[in-house]
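Quick sanity check, DUF2250 domain-containing protein:
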Amino acid sequence: MEPNLDETDLKLLKYLKTLGPDYAKLLASRFHIDLESMRSRLAYLESINFIERVEGRIVKYYHRRMKSVKHRNHTYFMIAREGDHYLRAQEADPDVPWKKPKR
């Protein structure tokens, strides 16, 4: 069964693949979407195993110039293997609405 994803969902997967784990409130502000809508998108992507919750109390960021470790205070999500494979199979690379942090 083909998942029902729109362009925003593809951008969200691309974001998580590029920048690593993040939480719903920050994702909602970056994508200019209300928090409840973002939570429902994340719940749907999690239900089809395209993203997964980050386990443990520490979140490691490898996408920055320097490795950084943060104690997590929110529920963080990261792209899962199935989501990564689905994103690679897409013909068009989604246009990203964010800039990488300057660190």
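Posting the structure with no commentary besides this: The beta strands are 22-23, 51-53, 58-61, 68-71, 76-79.
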